[in-house]
């Protein structure tokens, strides 16, 4: 019991120094190049008469993950950020583009070839209750990845399950319970335990704290930072809450309607936002300091990805849009060192 309490105290105290090593001197651990994902839309008779159109979920997305950093991917619901995360691991195969892990393109690997890659890239789902089998005990759920990859003997696998439960602030006896016997915060810890038990290199976290209370959110975020240090993890942190991603990310990419519209180091993005959408997002974050941003209220709703706007996808809600925005798609270009944006007027 004492070890579990110590882990929880660490979750409330640990803060890791930001990632500052120069990225220009190293090759990326994961490199995403012109990633696209489209979903066909069928009518009432299904596939009988073919598709009626395509949902453009992700369009021309490119970014890199460097070893040891946390990259935050932020956007509204429907922006394509979760689809991007699933496409990286092949859970939702990409329509086009490349995902390179340690220089190897993994987008066209067979299911058997992907198995070894998935051992090194793990996914933490938004809803841990839906991702945990309600008919299995927690110990069996955590042991299953070890059985699939044939890691260690039977006794070693059991001991590894116990040790992982302690690592995430739970107790060995929790291995004999079912998922419905845990609170939301505990279930998210179990989701992390299942992802970490294979000792991966990259952790993709899809809205891991969005369904939790604020006090529990801080525990999980601080625990993620502690685990990142202990397991030497590289993380992709997907969220709609830009105030949350500020406290955990080294770099941030802002997504809107399937495209990355701005990318920068965290401090640079908050100090000098360039894209109108980023400025609107930051203006909505409560700020108790003396320096208050002017509140920018965007009109209308995010357009349908079934029929995205021509030119700049943000132009229908942008306060500075012109005719050029309707005709030309702005390219994501580097404005200053490490700071990229996709806007004609920056």
Automatic annotation (TrEMBL):
SMART domains: AAA. The keyword Nucleotide-binding applies. Pfam families: ABC_tran, oligo_HPY. Keywords: ATP-binding, Nucleotide-binding, Transport. This is Oligopeptide transport system ATP-binding protein. The keyword Nucleotide-binding applies. Belongs to the ABC transporter superfamily. GO terms for molecular function: ATP binding. PROSITE patterns: ABC_TRANSPORTER_1, ABC_TRANSPORTER_2. Residues 30-282 form the ABC transporter domain.
């Amino acid at each position: 019991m004492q070890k579990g309490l110590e882990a929880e105290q660490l979750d409330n105290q640990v803060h890791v120094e930001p990632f500052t090593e120069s990225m220009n001197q190293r090759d990326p651990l994961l490199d995403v190049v012109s990633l696209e994902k489209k979903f066909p839309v069928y009518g009432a008779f299904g596939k009988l008469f073919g598709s009626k159109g395509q949902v453009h979920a992700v369009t021309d997305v490119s970014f890199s993950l460097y070893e040891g950093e946390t990259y935050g991917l932020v956007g509204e619901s429907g922006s394509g950020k979760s689809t991007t995360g699933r496409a990286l691991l092949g859970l939702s195969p990409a329509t086009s583009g490349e995902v390179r892990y340690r220089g190897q393109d993994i987008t066209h690997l067979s299911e058997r070839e992907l198995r070894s890659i998935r051992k090194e890239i793990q996914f933490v789902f938004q809803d841990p209750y839906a991702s945990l089998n309600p008919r299995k005990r927690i110990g069996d759920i955590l042991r299953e990845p070890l059985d699939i990859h044939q890691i260690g003997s039977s006794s070693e696998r059991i001991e590894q399950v116990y040790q992982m439960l302690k690592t995430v602030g739970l107790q060995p006896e929790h291995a004999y319970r079912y998922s419905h016997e845990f609170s939301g915060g505990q279930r998210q810890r179990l989701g992390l335990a299942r992802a970490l038990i294979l000792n991966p290199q990259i952790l993709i976290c899809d809205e891991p704290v969005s369904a939790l209370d604020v006090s529990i959110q801080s525990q999980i975020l601080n625990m993620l930072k502690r685990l990142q240090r202990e397991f030497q993890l590289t993380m992709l942190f997907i969220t709609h809450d830009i105030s949350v991603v500020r406290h955990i990310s080294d770099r941030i990419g802002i997504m809107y309607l399937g495209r990355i519209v701005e990318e920068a180091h965290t401090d640079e993005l908050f100090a000098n936002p360039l894209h109108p959408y980023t400025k609107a997002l930051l203006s909505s974050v409560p700020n108790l300091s003396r320096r208050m941003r002017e509140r920018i209220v965007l009109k209308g709703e995010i357009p349908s990805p079934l029929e995205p706007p021509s030119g700049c996808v943000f132009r229908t809600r942008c306060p500075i849009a012109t005719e050029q925005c309707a005709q030309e798609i702005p390219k994501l270009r580097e404005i200053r060192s490490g700071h990229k944006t996709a806007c004609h007027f920056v």
